[in-house]
Amino acid sequence: MIKLVAFDWNGTIFSNTAAIYKSNKGNFKLLKLKEPTYNQFLKHYDVPVKKFYLAIGANEEEFDKKAKQIAQTFHIDYERRISKIRSRAFAKTLLDYLSKNTIRSVIFSNHIIESIKKQVKRLKMEKYFAGIIANSELTAALKGRCKKEKLKSYMDSRKFLPNETMIIGDTVEEIEIGKQLGVTSVAITHGNCATVRLKAAKPDYLISSLKEVIGIIKTLNN
């Protein structure tokens, strides 16, 4: 019986993959890197973001030295780009369904919490989410991952069991978290990760539309 659904934000609820790709371009120049194609971005993008940059040829020492500047360069450009970006198709349809069926929804993200709150408010989605689990430091996603620990803490404090929890995300990270925590993992395509990578990570479910989650939950909760 699914009682809690934890949504990744970037590329899952928020349709911002193109903005993330474009907002990294300033850092490709800063680090004197050959700009990857969009498909190369999807092939290598990861968190910690440092892992992505090393995969496309960045020097680790230079990256570490310029980490704060890299984070600032990205976020300044990114915030400028996202003012009119919408939620992914059927996001509100799914969230309405969850709300009407008393299934709690939360956001868990490597992104900055204040930025997420701003967009959730703009998109008039505040009523759907019981909480936003995210980062407060600008450079946090460059350095490491913390989504698993934060979600585990949330589940424990609210007494949600693994078999009552579902996570939905667009990257391999959420699939790995699902396996580590023993929760149901749903991977959605057309986000920040190539489909072939998602398939290789073997999520419990692989979907191309958020609308498909309704049928999955109906089956699991039947």
UniProtKB/TrEMBL annotation:
InterPro entries: HAD-like_hydrolase_sf, HAD-like_sf, HAD_2, HAD_sf, PGP-like_dom2
Recorded superkingdom: Bacteria
Gene3D superfamilies cross-referenced by the UniProt entry: HAD superfamily/HAD-like, Putative phosphatase, domain 2
One record GO biological process: DNA repair
Pfam families for the chain: HAD_2
GO MF annotation terms: phosphoglycolate phosphatase activity
GO cellular component: cytosol
Transmembrane segments: none
Coiled-coil ranges (or none): none
Name of this protein: Phosphatase
Organism this protein belongs to: Candidatus Daviesbacteria bacterium GW2011_GWC2_40_12
